[in-house]
């Protein structure tokens, strides 16, 4: 008897982070970091579960959970081995559902829900194969990787044949690069000093601490008030000196003219990049801003809702740095498409992280990219935020400003059962009396 999926459990998990203004920026002033969470069970008898989630920032996490629920029919009763052996086919089935597709198509709550399911399936597959996901993916043949990607809408920028060529070109040296990751990790940068709700003194102290911990790049939130931004940037620059990279993140606050004016004020402090200057899906506005503020570099992508938008950002020469997100698109498969597109256009990918578990997930994608796709660490770095890792079974480890390569089987997605219960919304202990 082959094993089938027997459980599709969803949870609404919320952390009351707004109390400390952790995670506060110009657009997201009081986030309660949350996860619409999924656990897949099977009757294989091996005790293994697949865990996945969508990161949200509080209200609406119930909506996101309901969207995940709507996909249970695709999983329950299905053969486990056959499903996990063809996750490209599974991705297409989920994304091309002829009725649910209307709720996007291929964007927003429903698309992110598919991401949770796809990521949970990858978590389970990696656990069953006894490998951390980055090593599982980095060990696939180029043909197997290409099979995971849906090239519909991409072929004007990247064909399956071109993807295959890229992957074959990166095959030599895979083992050495994996070994390098195990020895030295993957470069990271920290956003922890720069939240907009923090005082100047806290910003200065945390910036110095970050450098002392070994980080060579930090990031500041900007975009609420330009005079404040200039003051805080000057403080941070004085605190860390000229050699440490300082990126700034406007979290979508500006129109084109405002963005250009603000970036001109910030440019003297040497921003490493300016992130999300305007509406995340306004490709042409990003292209205009980039042209007008050059050589200041523009970064975006954490809210890019699909591989199609990423394709356009690249085609329009609208970005210098691409910031994929592990739960914004439809999971691992779509992020592989995004990594391949970025490699084709020669644009570095510096994944967005923070939130709940985003650091845990993206490290696997970035390490896979280094091993099997781009083959380089040049100008690559993964965002790091020192929040909420204690709730994870296999939390990220930062050593000297670098992400240590995960070694436990799976996608590092699993939240501890006691945390899932305590922060369950609205009935967990953490929320008693808060409503
Ligand atoms: Mg950002």
From TrEMBL:
Q: Which UniProt keywords apply?
A: Lyase, Magnesium, Metal-binding
State if Magnesium is listed as a keyword.
Answer: yes
> Among its keywords, does the record have Magnesium?
yes
Q: List the catalysed reactions.
A: L-fuconate = 2-dehydro-3-deoxy-L-fuconate + H2O
Annotated Mandelate racemase/muconate lactonizing enzyme C-terminal domain ranges read: 200-296
Names of the cofactor(s): Mg(2+)
The protein's matches in InterPro entries, at most eight in alphabetical order, are given as:
Enolase-like_C_sf (IPR036849), Enolase-like_N (IPR029017), Enolase_C-like (IPR029065), L-fuconate_dehydratase (IPR034610), Mandel_Rmase/mucon_lact_enz_CS (IPR018110), Mandelate_racemase_C (IPR013342), Mandelate_racemase_N_dom (IPR013341), RHMD-like (IPR046945)
E.C. code: 4.2.1.68
Pfam assignment, any one: MR_MLE_N
GO biological process entries: amino acid catabolic process; carbohydrate catabolic process
- SMART domains referenced in this protein's UniProt entry, alphabetically: MR_MLE
Recorded superkingdom: Bacteria
Catalytic class of the enzyme: lyase
One MF term in the entry's GO annotations: L-fuconate dehydratase activity
Q: What is this protein called?
A: L-fuconate dehydratase
- Species of origin reads Tsukamurella pulmonis
Q: What is the lineage of its organism?
A: Bacteria, Bacillati, Actinomycetota, Actinomycetes, Mycobacteriales
């Amino acid at each position: 008897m082959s094993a089938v999926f027997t459980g599709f459990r969803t949870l609404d998990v919320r952390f009351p982070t707004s109390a400390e203004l952790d995670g506060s920026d110009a657009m997201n002033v009081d986030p309660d970091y949350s996860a619409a969470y999924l656990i897949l069970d099977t009757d294989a008898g091996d005790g293994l579960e697949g865990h996945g989630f969508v990161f949200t920032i509080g209200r609406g996490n119930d909506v996101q959970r309901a969207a995940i629920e709507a996909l249970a029919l695709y999983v329950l009763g299905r053969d486990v081995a056959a499903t996990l052996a063809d996750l490209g086919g599974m991705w297409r089935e989920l994304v091309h559902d002829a009725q649910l597709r209307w709720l996007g198509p291929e964007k927003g709550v429903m698309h992110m829900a598919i991401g949770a399911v796809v990521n949970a399936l990858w978590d389970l597959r990696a656990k069953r194969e006894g490998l951390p996901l980055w090593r599982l993916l980095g060990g696939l043949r180029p043909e197997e990787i290409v099979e995971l990607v849906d090239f519909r809408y991409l072929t004007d920028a990247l064909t399956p044949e071109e993807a295959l060529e890229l992957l074959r070109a990166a095959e030599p040296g895979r083992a050495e690069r994996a070994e390098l990751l195990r020895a030295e990790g993957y470069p990271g940068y920290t956003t922890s000093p720069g939240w907009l709700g923090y005082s100047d003194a806290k910003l200065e102290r945390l910036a110095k601490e970050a450098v002392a911990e070994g980080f060579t790049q930090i990031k500041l939130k900007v975009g609420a008030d330009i005079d404040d931004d200039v003051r805080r940037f000057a403080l941070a620059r004085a605190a860390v000196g000229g050699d440490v990279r300082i990126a700034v993140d406007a979290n979508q606050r500006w129109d084109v003219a405002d963005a250009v004016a603000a970036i001109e004020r910030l440019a003297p402090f040497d921003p490493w990049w300016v992130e999300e200057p305007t509406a995340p899906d306004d490709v042409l506005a990003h292209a205009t801003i980039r042209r007008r503020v050059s050589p200041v570099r523009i970064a975006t992508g954490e809210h890019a809702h699909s591989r199609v938008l990423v394709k356009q950002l690249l085609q329009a020469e609208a970005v210098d740095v691409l910031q994929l997100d592990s739960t914004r698109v439809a999971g691992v498969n779509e992020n592989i498409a995004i990594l391949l597109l970025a490699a084709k256009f020669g644009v570095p990918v510096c994944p967005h992280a923070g939130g709940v578990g985003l650091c845990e997930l993206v490290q696997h994608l970035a390490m896979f990219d280094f091993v099997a796709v781009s083959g380089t660490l040049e100008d690559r770095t993964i965002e790091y935020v020192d929040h909420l890792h204690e709730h994870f079974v296999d939390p990220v480890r930062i050593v000297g400003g670098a992400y240590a390569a995960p070694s436990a089987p799976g996608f590092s997605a699993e939240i501890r059962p006691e945390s899932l219960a305590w922060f369950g919304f609205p009935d967990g202990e953490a929320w008693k009396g808060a409503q």
